[in-house]
Structure formats: C-alpha cells, structure tokens
Amino acid sequence: MSKTLPDQIADLLIALIFTEDLNAGDKLPPERHLAQLLDVDRTSLRMALRMLGRMNAITSIQGSGIVVSDYRTDVGLDFLDNLYRIPELELGSDLLLAGLELFNRAIPTALQLALEQRFRSPDVPDDSVLTELVRDLYDGVLDGQPAELLAQQEVAVIDQLMVATGNQVLQASAISSRRIRIQLVTRMYELIDAPAHLQRMVGFMLRCAEQPQDMQGLIAEYQAYIDELTQPLRQDLASRPAKPRLLRSPLQNGRNIVSLKGLLSVPESAVGAVPLAE
What we know:
The chain is mainly alpha-helical. The protein has helices at residues 5-18, 31-38, 42-54, 71-74, 77-83, 93-120, 128-142, 147-165, 168-176, 178-191, 194-209, 215-229, 231-238; strands at 58-61, 65-68, 89-90, 245-246.
C-alpha cells in the first residue's frame, strides 16, 4: 500500500534525523520555507511535523521554533517502529547488533515469565495456539519454505510466548519490534541449519510442558543456545557498514531528496538555487 504524502515527509525527516543529516539541536526553517525546500504543500508538512512531535523527535520551543531532538535520549519505541518501516533506509550494523543483543536477552526472560505464569495459575494451560504455530513452522521447514516465511512463523511463535507472560509492556515491545525481528530472523535462517534448529526448539518446548525441577538451569541453557544459534548472524551483521544510510528518498516527488545538509543556513530567497537531490 502506497504511503500518503504526510507519511512520506515524516519518513524522510525521521531518516535524516537517524542518519544525523539533521542533528540534535538543529532548528528547522519556518514552515513555509521548509515546504518550499521539500516541494510539498504546507498542510501535508504540518501533518508530518505533528507525527514527529508525538514521537518527541522534534520539539516546539517558544521563541526558537521547531528544534530537532536527540533521538538517542528523547525518542521511544514509536520512533524505532517507524525506522523499521522505511525501506529506503539502510539501518546499519550498530542498530541491528544492538537489536539482536536485546532480543537475545528478552526471549529467555519472556520464557521464564511465561513458565512462572503457567505454573502459578490454577487453570489448565491452553497450549493449542502455540502448538499450532510451531506445527506451521515445522511444516514450513520440511517443505523448504523461503527464509522470510520461516522468519514470520518463528516470530509469531515468539509473539505468542510474549502473550503467555501476561506482561503488557513485553507484548507492546514485541509488537513495536516485529518488523526488525523478522528482518533479523530471515537472515538467520539463511545462515543456519533450519531442521536442526527446529529440533532443538521443540525439545525445549517439551521440557517446558512439565514444570522443570531446575527452571534457572533450563533458562540458562536456553540463553546459551540462543547465543550459539545467532553467532553466524552476529558475524554477518558485524561485516556490514556500521552507520545508517539513506539510499533513496522516501519522499516520492521526483526530487530524490536524501540530504538537507546546509538547509538551515540557506536564506528563503535562495530556495530555487539549492541543490536538493543527490
């Protein structure tokens, strides 16, 4: 589905903030001037700026106008979720490795919380949804399905594990990171022995079906397996460029605007002379 013009403008500004083409503390030009530079209407620009304001990616300061925030300290999951939705943006290995490290720690934690919730509840646990998801993944591996489809199925299994924790914060974090997790797991499946991985996964699930005598030992074993499983992916990511790059403009107006360096110092009267495309 094609994106609206406000979404395209927001994607461009988000990408420029993340690639540090727009730096923390930079002041954006007045709305009319910025609309001219981007070659967009002011209503669409205003809607895009409102989106960024809700993410805290920009801040309106009385007497100073609109100022770019520090994405490292001021933004939240919604900013990251939008980053993952920009296909024109190459994220860079720094972010991907940080995400991988976080997910590698979060999944064993979620498993422990889910098990504690399972055995604390007096009700008989309903494993039908999780069982069906694992069966779909198993069939996909046997059928030689492409890595992206297997990744979507495995992420669905992990998301169901998050639901089983009963922790809404974990569930919200999983939803916000679903796109980047699918991207990472897709690449992982391209690098590993998928049938062997699935056998290990099913083995852990069977051991979790009955209350383990040594839960901490099981979680530690699972953590070690996750670290081992993702080692090829970690090496692959480390070989990529560390910093993000905007490969082409998310703003599809024929200008291919991929950088606004120097924009802030250009007087409004010189807008027509500014080279906007690279």
